[in-house]
C-alpha cells in the first residue's frame, strides 16, 4: 500500500496487536493480502536504519504471505517503534511474524468483518 487514503481506511477501525518493536493494525481485505510499513524519523533518524527495518518487515511478510492468502486476505500496516532500530535482523522478523500470526488468529476468531 502506498496511498494515504489506503492507510487511513485501515486506521479508521483497525484490529491491533503490538510488542516492544512494532505496532500492527489490520483489517480483512477483499482481495489478496497487502502490506504497508511506516518507520518515522523519530524511530530511526538515519535512512539506512529506516530502510533496513522496512526490508526485514517486508521479508517477514513475504514468508507468511501464503498462509495469509489462504484465508480471506488481510491488509496490514506495520508501524515501527524506536526500539526496532537496535534490534537485529532475526529479532525484527520474529517480532513481525509473531504479530501477524496473532492478528490472523484473532481475525479468524471474529465472526464479523473487521
- Judging from the principal axes of the Cα atoms, what is the shape? globular
Averaged pLDDT, please?
91
Main sheet properties: 4 strands, mixed
Share in helix: 40-55%
Structural descriptors:
114 residues; alpha+beta; 47% helix; globular
Describe the structure.
- This protein has a four-stranded mixed sheet with strand order 1-2-4-3, sandwiched between helices.
- With 114 residues, it is α+β, with helices and mostly antiparallel strands.
- The protein has three helices and four strands, in the order H-E-E-E-H-E-H.
- The longest helix has 24 residues, at 47-70.
- The radius of gyration is 13 Å and the shape is globular.
In short:
The protein has helices at 4-12, 47-70, 89-109; strands spanning 15-18, 22-28, 34-38, 74-80. It is of the alpha+beta class and 114 residues long.
Furnish the topology, listing elements before pairings:
Elements: H1 4-12, E1 15-18, E2 22-28, E3 34-38, H2 47-70, E4 74-80, H3 89-109
